[in-house]
Amino acid sequence: MIANTYTTATTPKLFLAAILFCSAFTFYPTNLFAQSHCDNSDFINGNFDNWLGSIGFCCPINTGTNVLVQGRHTIMSGTGMDLNTNNAIPVVAPGDLYSARLGNDIAGSEAEKLSFSFNVTTDRELFVYKYAVVLEDPGHGAADQPRFEIRVFDSLNQQIGCGFYNVVASANIAGFTNIHNQFGADIVYKDWSSVGVDLSSYSGQNITIEFATGDCAFGGHYGYAYISAYCSPLSLEAYYCDGFYDATIQAPEGFYAYQWSSGETTSSIHVQNPVNGSSYSCVLTSFTGCTVAISSILTPTKVTADFDAQSRCIDHVGFLDKTIVSNSTVKKWNWNFGDNTFDSVQHPTHTYTTIGVYDVQLLVTTKGGCVDSITKQITVHDYPEIKFTHTLGCVGIPLHFENQSVASTSPNTGLVWNINNVLYTNASSAIYTHNTTDSFPATLIVTNDAGCTDSITEIIPMLKSPRPAFDFQNNCALSPLQFLDKTVSDFPIIKYVWDLGDGKNSHEQNPIHKYTKPGNYLITLLAENDKHCVGDTSLVIKVLDTLIADFIYTPDKITTLTPTVSFINYSLKNLALYHWDFGDGYTSDYFNETHRYAEAGRYPVQLWVTNNDGCRDTMNKEILVTPVPGIHIPNSFTPNDDAKNEMFFPLSENIKDYRILIYNRWGQVVFNGEDNKPWDGKTSNEGVYVYKISGTDFFNQPFEKYGEVTLLK
After folding, report:
1. Among 46, 533, 566, 683, which has the minimal tally of Cβ within 10 Å of its Cβ?
2. What per-residue confidence (pLDDT) applies to 288?
C-alpha cells in the first residue's frame, strides 16, 4: 500500500529514440529542482507529456497495448512515503517536485512500461535518471519473480552495449534491502538511486530509454518502481567568484567513480588560491566500467546585479531582473521593495499601499554562491482620474465624446477610445454615430507618463430620433401650397425647420407657401424633439403650371329694360371644370353662359375654373343692373285738410333727391322747394301753375321735368 500519492494520467507524446545506459551510483542531488534540458523528462508539468506508456503481462514482460492507465502509470507529488517499505522510500526523489510510479501493489501478473525519447545535443550529452524499486519476494523461480528492467536503444532500435539492466526479486541483491513489512509481505527494495549516462558519442542521434515493471508470473505478488530523469551538458562546473580565494569544481552526478587530475576521487574538489585559466580534468567511471574524461578551464564567475521597473503604478510595479552573469547562472533573487516587504522570484510584481519614493534593493546569488546587490530609487505613481462626457445618444446622430480625465502624480500621455469596438487613438475627443436603438459600451483608456493605465466604461443608452415626414396640398404655381407635417416622435417636437427649395425657409409646423414659377423643388424638413434629437427628410415636389381664370360680359351697360347678360369664359390652360355664380342665387357649370337678372342692383359674379392638373383659380367681377327711372307727377292736388292729396311732389321710388319750382301765370316763382320739400299750396289761390322739377335718381342719374299742376281748394 502506498501513502500520500497524487495520481493523474494523460496521453504522452510519442518520441522514437534510444539512450545508452552506462552506470549506476547511489546519489542524492544537491541542486534541488534542477532544470532539465529535456522537456518534462522530470514530469515537471505534472503529467506524462513526451512519455509513451504501455501495459501487458508478465512473465517475461510483454506489453503490446500503447496506453497510459491511471493507477498503473501514476504521477506522484508531495512528501508521502511508500508504505510497503515501512515508510523507508519517498514517493518523490529528494530534490524533485514530481515522479512517476510505474506499476502498483495490486497483483495480477500485470506489466507496465514507460519510455522517453530525445535527440542528443551538446546540452543533452548527460542523461541522469533516478529510480527506486519495490519488489515482493514470493520465493518463486527467477523466471517467475516480480522484476524491474531498463533497456536502451539507438536510432536503429538496436539495444546498445551495456544498455540493459534487469533485477528480479531475490534475497541479498547488491544495493537492495530485505524486510518483512507491516502488512506481512516479504519485500526487497532499493532506495532512490541516480544513474548518469554519457551520450557524447551519440550527438545528433535519437535514443530511447525504456523502464518496465512486472508482477510475478502466477498473479499473486507485485512489483513496481518510481522513476524520474533530467538532461544536462557533460561538463565540469566551477563555483569560483571573482575576487575570492577559493573555488569548488563539480563533476556531473550519477557516476560510480571519479578520478581528478589533482588526485582527488570525490565528485567535487575544493581549490585554494585558484589561478585564472588553469585547467582541471576528471575521468568518470560507470558501474560497468565505461569511462569518460572531461576537462575545464577555471574562469571566475562575474555577477553584476541590475534591474528595471517596467511600470510604476501603485498596485502593479513590475520589476525586470537584468543581472549579468558570466560562467554561472543565478540561483537566488532576494528583493527588498523598501516598504518592509520582500520576494524571491526573478521578475516580481509588487503592490504598494501608498505612492511615493522607495529604495528598492536586489541581491542575487549564483549557483556557485557568488553575490552582488544594487539599490535603486523607484517613484511609485497613482493612476489617472478618468472621466469623459458625451452628447445625448440619438439614433443616426453623431455623438461627441470629450476626455475630462485629470492627471494624478504623472502627466497623462496616452488616450485610447473604444466605442462599440471602434478604436480612436491619441485623440482627446471622438465622434461616433450609432444607427440602432441598442445601447452600447464606450470605454476610455488613459495612460500616464509612469505607464499607469486605467479605464472607465459607460453604457450609452440610445433614444429614437424624430422620423420627419410631410404631405402637401395644391401644388399649383401662384396658388397657396399647404404643407402638412406628419412627423413621428417619441418625444414632443420643439423645433421645425423647413427648406422650401426656392430660397425660402419656415419654422411653422404646417407652413403655407406660394411658388411663383412651376418646376421641381427639393423640400427638406428638420425636426428636433425636447431631448434634442434631430431627424430630417427630403422630398422633391412638382409645382404645376400657372392657371388664370378670366371672363368678360356684354352689354357693358345693363338696365332693367335690358337685363340679359352674356358671360364669355376667357380662362387659359387646359380647362377641365367650370363653375359660375351669378350673385343672385343662380349658378351654372357651362363654359359660357347667358343670364337674365330680374331686378336692378349690383351683383358679384364669380368664375371658378379647374385644369387637367387639378389647379384652380377664380375671377370675380361686379355686374350693375341699372333701373330705368319712372317718375309720376300729379296734375292737381287739394290742400283742404282732408288728408287726401294735400301736397304736390314727384312720385317715384327711384328718386334720390329733387327740387320743385312753382311759377304763376305771370312767370313769378311762388314756391322754391329744395331738399325734397313738397309744395302745400296754402298761400296760393286756386288756379293753374307751371312747375319745374329737377334732381337725381338712385343711380346718380340727373333728371328734369316740366308741366302744369292745378291747385284746388
Report:
1. 683
2. 62
C-alpha cell read off for 160: 546498445
Cα–Cα–Cα angle for 460, 464, 467, nearest 5°? Answer: 155
- Residue of 199, 154, 173, 190 whose CA lies nearest to 23: 199
pLDDT digits (tens, 9 = 90+) for 182-192: 999 999 999 99
pTM value surpassing 0.85? no
Place of cell 539599490: 375
Task: Report how far residue 413's alpha carbon sits from residue 407's, in angstroms, rounded to the nearest whole number.
Answer: 9
For 560: left if phi > 0, alpha if psi spans -120 to 50, otherwise beta; the answer is alpha
| CA 200 vs CA 17, 189, 233, 629, 698: distances in Å | 15, 32, 9, 153, 147
Q: List Cα–Cα distances, 448 to 401, 406, 524, 552, in angstroms.
A: 20, 10, 48, 90
DSSP secondary structure string, 221-284? Answer: --EEEEEEEEEE-SS-EEE-BTT-SEEEEEPPSS-SEEEETTS--SSEEEEES--TT-EEEEEE
Residues 6+ apart with CB under 8 A from 214: 57, 58, 59, 60, 61, 103, 109, 110, 111, 112, 146, 147, 149, 223
Distance separating alpha carbons of residues 247 and 264, to the nearest angstrom? 15
* Single-letter amino acid code for the residue at 680: D
> Residue for cell digits 523607484?
378
Residue in the structure block whose three cell numbers are 527506486: 132
Single out the residue of 444, 424, 419, 455 nearest to residue 434, CA to CA: 419
User: Residue 195, Cα to own-chain centre: how many angstroms?
Assistant: 58
Cα angle, residue 230 at apex, residues 227 and 233 outer, rounded to 5°? 150
Provide φ and ψ at 143, rounded to 5°. -70, -15
The pLDDT of residue 591: 92
For 486-532, the pLDDT digits (tens) are 999 989 999 999 999 999 999 999 999 988 888 899 999 999 998 88
Q: What is the pLDDT of residue 374?
A: 97
Q: Are 689 and 662 within 8 A, CB to CB?
A: yes
Other beta carbons within 10 Å of 457: 12
Q: Using one digit for the tens of pLDDT, what is the confidence trace for 406-464?
A: 988 888 889 999 999 999 998 899 999 999 989 999 999 999 888 888 999 999 999 88
Q: From residue 118, how far is each of 37, 48, 101, 190, 252 by CA, in Å?
A: 10, 15, 21, 27, 20
Q: What single DSSP character describes residue 555?
A: -
